[in-house]
Prior knowledge:
The chain is mostly helical. 86% of the residues lie in helices and 0% in strands. It has helices spanning 9-43, 47-93, 95-108, 113-137, 147-170, 174-200, 204-233. The chain is elongated and about 80 Å long. Bound molecules: zinc ion. The site of zinc ion (ZN) has 6 residues, from helix 2, helix 3 and helix 4.
Amino acid sequence: MAHPGEPHHDDLAGRLNWLRAGVLGANDGIVSTAGLVVGVAGATTDRTAILAAGVAGLVAGSLSMAGGEYVSVSTQRDTEQAALDKERRELRDMPAEEERELAGIYQEQGLSAELAAQVAAELTEKDAFRAHAQAELQIDPDNLTSPWQAAWASLVSFALGALVPVVAITAPPTSWRVWTCVVSVLLGLVATGLVSARLGGGEPRRAVARNVLMGATTMVVTYYIGVLFGVTVG
Ligand SMILES: [Zn+2]
C-alpha cells in the first residue's frame, strides 16, 4: 500500500528517466556547441560568422538529437506493440494455458500454488491483458513511451544547453568573448554534472570533475584547430 502523497513508483521512475535524459541532452548541447563556437572564434573575430556557426550548430544538433530519439523510441515501441499483439492473440486463442502461465509466474515470484492460481484467476477476471502485459512483458500497456514526446524533450534540452555557449560567445566584446564562453560553459557543466550525479546517486565531485574536464578538453582542441585555420586560411 502506498503512503498517502507518495507518487506511484512507476511514475517516479518515469519522471526521473525524463529528467536524466533532459540533463544529458543539455550537457550534449553545451559541449558540442561550445566546441563549435570556440573553434570558429579561434579562426575569426567576425561576430556574425561566430553567431551563424553557433545557431547552425544549435539547430542541427537539436534536430539530429530529436531525430535519433524519435527513431530509437519508435523502434522500441514497435517491439513492445508486437509483443502486446502476440499476447492479445494468445489470450484469445488459448485462455486456459495463459491463465496457467500467469499463475506460474506468480508462483515463481514466491506465492504458493493455490494463492498463485487464485491471483491469476482474479486478475484474469478483471483485466487479463493488462495482467499479462505487466507480469510477462513488464509493459504498462497504457503508458508506452511516445516517440514524439521523447523527440521533443531531446530537442528542447539540447537547444537550452546550446544557448549557453552561443549567448556567452556572441554577447561580450571581442577580447572577452572566448573567456566568457569558457567560464559560462564550465559553470554549466558543473550544474549538469551535479544534477546527473544527484539523479544517478553517484559521487558528485568526481562526476563534476569528469564533466568539466571533458568540456574543457573539447574547447581547447577546437580552439587550436580554429587558430590553425585562421593562420593558414585567413
Ligand atoms: Zn501470457
